[in-house]
Amino acid sequence: MVEMAQELTALIQKNRTVDWDKKQSARAYMRVQVKRLLLKYKYPPEQAKAAIITVIKQAELMSANIAI
User: Fold this and answer.
1) How many CB atoms are located within 10 Å of the residue 38 CB?
2) Which residues, other chains included, contact 7 with Cβ-Cβ below 8 Å and sequence gap of 6+?
3) What is the pLDDT of residues 4-49, one digit of tens each?
4) Count of other CB atoms within 10 angstroms of residue 54
5) How far is CA 40 from CA 47, 52, 56, 65, in A?
6) Which of 1, 21, 38, 54 could form a disulfide with 43 if both were Cys (CB 3.0 to 4.6 A apart)?
7) Is residue 65 very low, low, confident or very high in pLDDT (cuts 50, 70, 90)?
8) How many CA atoms lie within 13 A of 41 on its CB side?
C-alpha cells in the first residue's frame, strides 16, 4: 500500500500542469493513469471508481496549495 501511494503521488506531481484541472483532456489522461496504477496493484475493481474520484479531488486540493 505504501509503495502504491508513493507511486501515485509521483504520478500526480509528474502529470500536473498549470491548468490541468480546467482541461478535460488533461483530467481524462490523469484518470487513465490512476486507473492503470490501480490495476497494476490489483486494486478491487468495484472500489476503483470511488478511488479515482478521491485521487482527482486530492490532486485538485494539492495543486491549490502547491505552486508549480
Assistant:
1) 20
2) 37
3) 888 888 887 787 766 776 778 888 888 898 899 899 999 999 999 9
4) 11
5) 14, 14, 18, 29
6) 38
7) low
8) 17
